[in-house]
Amino acid sequence: MLGEIIAIGDELTSGRILNTTSYFAAGHLFAAGHEIVAMTTIGDNAAVIAESLHRALVRADFAIVTGGLGATSDDLTNEAVADALDRPTTFHPDILRRIEEQASDWAAQAGVSVEKLAWLPEGAHELKSDANMAGYFLVHDGKPIFFLPGVPHEMEELLLETVITRLAVWAGQEPRTVHQKVFRVVGVPETAINGRLRHLEGRDSRVTIGYYPVLPEVHVSLNVTGTSVAEAAALFADYDREISASLGDHCYGEDGDLLEEVVGSLLRERGCSLALAESCTGGGIAAKVTSVAGSSDYFLGGAVVYSNDLKERLLGVEPGVLAAHGAVSEATALAMADGARRLTGADLALAVTGIAGPSGGSPEKPVGTVWFALAGDEVTRAFCFRFSGVRWQVQSKACYAGLDMIRRQLLGLPLVP
Amino acid sequence: MLGEIIAIGDELTSGRILNTTSYFAAGHLFAAGHEIVAMTTIGDNAAVIAESLHRALVRADFAIVTGGLGATSDDLTNEAVADALDRPTTFHPDILRRIEEQASDWAAQAGVSVEKLAWLPEGAHELKSDANMAGYFLVHDGKPIFFLPGVPHEMEELLLETVITRLAVWAGQEPRTVHQKVFRVVGVPETAINGRLRHLEGRDSRVTIGYYPVLPEVHVSLNVTGTSVAEAAALFADYDREISASLGDHCYGEDGDLLEEVVGSLLRERGCSLALAESCTGGGIAAKVTSVAGSSDYFLGGAVVYSNDLKERLLGVEPGVLAAHGAVSEATALAMADGARRLTGADLALAVTGIAGPSGGSPEKPVGTVWFALAGDEVTRAFCFRFSGVRWQVQSKACYAGLDMIRRQLLGLPLVP
Predict the structure, then answer these.
(1) Are A25 and A59 in contact (CB under 8 A)?
(2) A281 contact residues in B (CB cutoff 8 A)
């Protein structure tokens, strides 16, 4: 179907906040076989909201409206919709009761009124009756309009869990067959990946291959369309196989996979416990590892050793090693990994020590120099990388390189791409 | 003046590319005193381009159109504009000559014809006569329309170097004076902040106050416009003072300030060294602290102690304390903070232990229960928070609450908001 996406908020039209929700919605709606006729971003202005809604109802088969559903006084989507569509707001006591129950302790303590969230335009139905967030739909002039929160993670959850499926039911037919897959790649630059896949481009008009740098990863998308399920599936399988072969072990996962989840699953499968000793990444690798639910099953803990003193006292790095080789060196990285393993009793320990910048570099060890070491029963190895970029880029690249090293060790791959 | 931004490209409406150019333009136009009535993103479709242009000419004083100016077959902005505004394209030999000279290396190699770039709608004038890129403007129905490339850095260059100044000249007057400030708030929900500031809203049409949850922070924006510098400055100073007073110590910074930077500056100013002992935040606080350049001046390091064993061995938490009170308890948090301080010799140590979920909760200690402890010469205190949300939200809220506790300790404020 033809859809229109309308994002509402002064923070968007004044250029303070980048609108990522419309982009997210467009990508998923497109993948579900819909075409987006327009993505409109407007301020918190009732007249412009009304005008945009009417226009969407003329040129599209459905509309997604995001933002302006909150409880504060500048949230005026519901009133504007009520006026524009001549659907006076009505009170939903059940919604208020649930929101009050689920509202954060902060809100309750602060004595804040959330009643506004329970006044919806006539004919509105909740999208998800157990959700702790705003979000409803209504059908006007025979066309469904979905109203979603502007907060990205809430909007994304409701879109994926309710809107896509309701639209499929609404369309009442098998949507245009689209197969889409994202290959997630780490450790290779976009241009090198492009070179590996260029021979596959332009061979078939039903196939699109895209490259999206999401630093320090690169995501490669494959889109295949077809008029029949069988046609699209066969074509998709061919390209999927060819791309997978070309990317090889640089591809760590697909679609929504995260590197830290892939590493976590491998650790769990192999019954391997992990410890970390981080200097220049400052806890960034540990934070990624522990962002995964259930990571306490395989992650024991780690040390963030920023000072040399702590490298000695906590990890037992010999003062002589630090004096002779410096904190950023093969010897120190190996001693840190050994120390972390001894300290925690983990099966595998990763150590990282480097110069994230902006200061601390030297001609021999410029900013971006990072030593990694892995220590385990089957491995004791150190590697040096030289990452480009400013502080956060060096730190981010080092976090991903470290995680990828653990993945490669567990899969028996060469430890460095 | 009132402006509209129209971005053209199938890559945008299919959700393959995030539209950052409209965001860039909106921010700079807003800062120059203009108001954006709508940002419209549409595909490479002549009918929709025509409709969007006509609409912009009705509701705005000027329009910025980006994308679709290239030399390939899917670039059809010029033809669509020519049809929509009844301005047949005319050939500009001087433009072609310059583009051919400047584009020789890539276009000649690729055997690409760039002639298309020299056919512009009647009445079009180049934006920059020495530019190696497309970009022109024309005046229709007495309103200026600017056509810019979709490539972000080209569009940004032309916008900053030509569009902003031409619009100021067009307006024929000193641009409207705009003062903008963002107050960054942590530890209070959006609705409570709204309650504190509601009395300031709607008092003056020249003043806009906005609320933006950027979890777990809230950003409050103040925008003041005036026709003279003195008028706007005086009004801004009044509101700035009133909002600051209302937000009190919940406001940790302004505009681009980050909480970890504010905490870092305070530690540096006071010559106070910091250590961390993290359980449920898993290194997330350390990662934030060390994301700040120069953090090695005040951050010594820390321990990520996920297992009980490591809490005992690394931080010296007594097995009896863990057995009697559990890992998530006041006694354990205090012992962790003491241990981290002893281990590192830091002036101040923060410990965090809690249940991030999704598993691990109990009726007495549900998911979201987090104990914090601060240990230093002048303080030994523990606090319990109960955060709502899923794992990443609990972790993120705990990171910010922990950082804010350090800020409050260093400023002599109550440790809990």
Answers:
(1) no
(2) 287, 290
